[in-house]
Amino acid sequence: MASKHDIRSLIDGLQNRGFIVRKTNGGHYRMTNTQTGKFGFIPSTPSDYRSILNAKALAKRLCIVSAIQPKSDNPSFYNL
After folding, report:
1. 52: which of 2, 20, 28, 65 fits an S-S bond (Cβ 3.0–4.6 Å)?
2. Residue 1 has what DSSP assignment?
3. Domain span at 57
4. CA angle 79, 8, 21 (to 5 degrees)
């Protein structure tokens, strides 16, 4: 079961990679790629383990499309 802690960790990782993450009026989070302007939504309260996996997959797609590189030389970039 995914928890709010998992969502918080994902948000922190996205912000470290240059994303803007803001809470929407509907209670979700909007993650915006600052280089391309592409965005996606992630839940603020995950219902099951798949919601965090789906959010990670969406974040990876947004990163790969824009070729955002990690701020460090850490090869774990794709292990959001």
Report:
1. 2
2. -
3. 4-65
4. 90
